[in-house]
Prior knowledge:
The chain is an alpha+beta fold.
Amino acid sequence: MQIRAPAILIAARQHGETAVIARFLTAEYGVVAAYVAGGRGRQLRPVMIPGNVVDVQITARSESQLPFAKVELVDSRGPFLTEPLPAAAIGWALALTATALPERQPYPSLHDALGGLLDAVCHAPSARGWVGAMIAYETLLLRELGYGGEGARPQGELPELLRQMDALAGPLDHYLLADRRGDVMAARSRLRELLGRIEK
């Protein structure tokens, strides 16, 4: 297997002293996991931040082998992770994506939507500029994986958007995150708590 593609780094887990097992979301190949040698080293640590857009080159000798990846940074989300609300939004979107999507099944619309959502979280003047995009992404994820989800674009002021967000919690937990390891919904609860503070 040989892949070279732009990708969103959706998860990175330490492996050994300096390596990382990373999961990349690509438009053409879906989610691909790979071993990144030196991923926790001084040179690659700023690159291996979940949410970053990277150019990734992935190679494997066989389908059963964990591929190796070489990664170059395209766009960093690191500066936006110092603020609690953007960090919570980025963390939830990535945790949901990494947990819900199967490996190596392409969902180009989800790749594009996640990229747009992360851009909105990072560059909108306030949460009011991206909460609708978060709801739209969650809805699209449900729809793409076969669990319905209305296609109407979320609208309204922040209180109405938060009501729409609350209504999606049940389907996400029931359909996409049931029987998955770890309490991924805790990340969403944290985000909702922070959004509730700015609603007042």
